[in-house]
């Protein structure tokens, strides 16, 4: 690459927008509802819509990548995120349409980013995965912290416009990267595709199916934790402010894991990977079990969210890193990532909703938390099945 710093900057900025563009608005959902004259209950779907769009659009990524090339597909995805983000401030109906567009763009980015690293930095996959996952974790936490102050000082619309400016910067850096570092001619695109297998069939692969279920469990438990840990904590006696602290800790404490784990996974053999990740997943499991305590105080919840942050982030990073290091080329990576995220987000989309329905009916979180614990045990079993001294498609 002629200007490697442009590619690196693009990866960093992608990390900024990959999660914060759809996780920030729920923090100020009361303000959004008030400005449009809607009950808060009608806006609860804003959390589910991105997950559904992830499930719908992820499987189409491989087609568009082969048809138009990875770089152009990623650029269109960024433009969808930018346009959708700007639409959200216009009206109540545009809020939902914009959220769908943001989700569809992020769906493509989720799938393409691991494949992009395989193509441009095949010898530094761990380092670059660490770069964007750390940025994503850090900026998600920062935007959750600054969302309310910005909304109070200006408006929630200004908060969304601020996010949109960052998306615009990603578009600019990616266009420059394409112009300077990438040969986007038809001949080059055809040549690069010809060097890959004609077809990849993840839906016929038992290991890919296992990755799909693992992705579903990881996403379901993560998004359910984000949505319901503050509420559960308040039911045990914490104030709203304290519950905000514990959810912030959950995001921030995951930063060390996102910085170190990808590089370790890239260097480690499959036995080292499975042993380390079993330990991290057990830490995640312990945190979920600790949620059974109905008399928990602030310190207890800080420990719970610290364990979720460390273990859960390690599991997330394991999944996104595996899409790259457990495949042989960008086509395999995007195919595996697309399949796993399709099923994974489809499973995850209903999890927070189901947790809430049971919470309302039972006035308890015991049953739902038990299901989450069992799901994590299943994850561990599937991980031992998937990890071997070969790639997914060998």
UniProtKB/TrEMBL annotation:
Q: Keywords, A to Z?
A: Membrane, Transmembrane, Transmembrane helix, Transport
Q: Which named protein is this?
A: MFS transporter
Q: Where are the transmembrane segments?
A: 43-61, 73-90, 96-118, 130-150, 156-180, 207-230, 242-262, 274-292, 298-321, 342-359, 365-386
PROSITE patterns linked to this entry: MFS
> Which Pfam families does this chain map to?
MFS_1
PANTHER family, per database record: 2-NITROIMIDAZOLE TRANSPORTER, PTHR23523
Query: Per the UniProt entry, what species is this protein from, by scientific name?
Result: Weissella paramesenteroides
**Which GO cellular component term is one of those annotated?**
plasma membrane
Q: List, alphabetically, the SUPFAM superfamilies matched.
A: MFS general substrate transporter
Write down the membrane topology.
Multi-pass membrane protein
| Places the protein is found | Cell membrane
**What region holds the Major facilitator superfamily (MFS) profile domain?**
7-387
């Amino acid at each position: 690459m002629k200007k490697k710093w442009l590619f690196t900057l693009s990866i960093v900025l992608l990390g900024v927008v990959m999660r914060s563009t759809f996780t920030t608005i729920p923090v100020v959902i009361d303000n959004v509802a008030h400005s449009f004259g809607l009950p808060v209950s009608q806006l609860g779907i804003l959390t589910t819509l991105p997950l559904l769009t992830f499930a719908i659009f992820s499987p189409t990524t491989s087609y568009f990548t082969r048809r138009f090339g990875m770089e152009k597909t990623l650029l269109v995805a960024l433009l969808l995120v930018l346009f959708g983000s700007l639409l959200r401030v216009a009206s109540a109906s545009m809020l939902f349409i914009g959220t769908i567009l943001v989700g569809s763009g992020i769906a493509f980015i989720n799938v393409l980013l691991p494949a992009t690293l395989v193509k441009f930095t095949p010898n530094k996959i761990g380092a670059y995965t660490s770069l964007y996952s750390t940025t994503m974790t850090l900026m998600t936490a920062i935007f959750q912290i600054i969302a309310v102050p910005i909304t109070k000082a200006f408006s929630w619309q200004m908060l969304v416009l601020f996010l949109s400016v960052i998306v615009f910067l990603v578009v600019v850096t990616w266009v420059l990267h394409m112009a300077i570092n990438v040969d986007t001619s038809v001949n080059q695109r055809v040549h690069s595709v010809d060097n890959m297998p004609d077809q990849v069939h993840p839906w016929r692969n038992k290991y890919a199916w296992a990755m799909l279920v693992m992705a579903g469990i990881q996403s379901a438990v993560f998004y359910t934790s984000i949505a319901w840990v503050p509420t559960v904590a308040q039911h045990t006696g914490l104030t709203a402010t304290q519950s905000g602290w514990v959810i912030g800790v959950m995001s921030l404490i995951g930063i060390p894991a996102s910085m170190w784990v990808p590089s370790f996974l890239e260097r480690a053999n499959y036995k080292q990977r499975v042993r380390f990740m079993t330990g991290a997943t057990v830490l995640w499991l312990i945190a979920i079990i600790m949620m059974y305590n109905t008399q928990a105080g602030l310190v207890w919840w800080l420990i719970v969210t610290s364990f979720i942050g460390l273990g859960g982030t390690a599991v997330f990073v394991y999944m996104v890193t595996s899409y790259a290091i457990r495949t042989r080329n960008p086509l395999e990576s995007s195919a595996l990532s697309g399949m796993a995220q399709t099923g994974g987000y489809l499973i995850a989309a209903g999890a927070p909703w189901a947790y809430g329905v049971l919470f309302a009916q039972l006035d308890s979180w015991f049953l739902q938390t038990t299901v989450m614990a069992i799901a994590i045990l299943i994850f561990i079993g599937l991980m031992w099945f998937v990890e071997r001294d070969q790639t997914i498609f060998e």
